[in-house]
Amino acid sequence: MNDKDNLLVLRNLIQNKLHFEITQYKDRYIERRLNARMGLTHVKSINEYIALLKKDPDELSKLKDALTINVTEFFRNPGTFNILEKSIIPQIITNKESDSTDVIKVWSAGCSSGEETYTLAILFLEGLKKSHKKFKVSINGTDIDRKSILTAKTGIYEGNKVKSIRKDLVDKYFQPVGDDYEIKPSVKQHIRFSFLDLTGINKKAPIYDLILCRNVIIYFKEDMKKELFLNFYDMLRKNGFFIQGKNESLIGDAKDQFVTVNLAERVYKKMK
């Protein structure tokens, strides 16, 4: 069996054992992650690595962690959250006054261990307090990494994770747990975390006022990106907002349907 055949066997193994839709991810992304694990395990060929995966469940778990690698923090990319706080959230609250529902719905797609999702909840609670409005907030945080979802649900983070957050917000929305900090129940009650593979989402009727999917789509193949962007567009309410990562760009039909609000921060709006 040559390297090409071995690579196909490995991809099938990943697909079946890890339930990871590998065909939708860029080859370069997959190969970088595989090469990293092969180097760390000191195997010399794909065939050897396949044999290792078949006999070592621990390595299979480590490979999944490598493929679903998560990098996140509270208020990551401050410019994005600044425009959210100063402009987008006030607009969403104003739009809700003429809406048929009093629930503001937000989706944090690719939420990792929850920092982004909790940041959104804090900003919406602050925005509602300033506006003196009584709307409800419902935020969905989804990710393909089940371990990250479990961490997100606990809402407990090391002290260095909250150092970049304003002290008044830490005091209001976190509670000390030893050397760590836990998100208060008053914030958690607005959030639901769940497992979701974005390559397998079912398009639904417009339900969200805001969708964030940052630094996730960059790893997908072009056709998958185009499909996801259209799905996000269709799942937004009229006047809803979509935010992607600062190193990502809209492509496909969605590029002509979204209206650009802030190109630098990758903020877009659905007008129709």
Can I get a quick summary?
The protein has helices at 3-18, 27-41, 46-55, 57-67, 78-96, 115-131, 146-154, 167-173, 185-188, 222-234, 254-257, and strands at residues 103-109, 136-143, 156-158, 174-177, 180-183, 191-195, 208-213, 236-244, 259-262, 267-269.
Describe this structure in words.
- With 272 residues, the protein is an alpha/beta fold.
- It folds into 2 domains: 3-67, no CATH class; 78-269, 3-Layer(aba) Sandwich (Rossmann fold), CATH 3.40.50.
- It is 46% helix and 19% strand.
- It has helices at 3-18, 27-41, 46-55, 57-67, 78-96, 115-131, 146-154, 167-173, 185-188, 222-234, 254-257, and strands spanning 103-109, 136-143, 156-158, 174-177, 180-183, 191-195, 208-213, 236-244, 259-262, 267-269.
- The strands form 2 sheets. A 7-stranded mixed sheet has the order 6-2-1-7-8-10-9.
- Helix 1 (3-18) packs parallel to helix 3 (46-55), helix 3 (46-55) crosses helix 4 and helix 5 crosses helix 6.
- The chain is globular.
- The N and C termini lie far apart (54 Å).
- The model has no long low-confidence stretch (mean pLDDT 88).
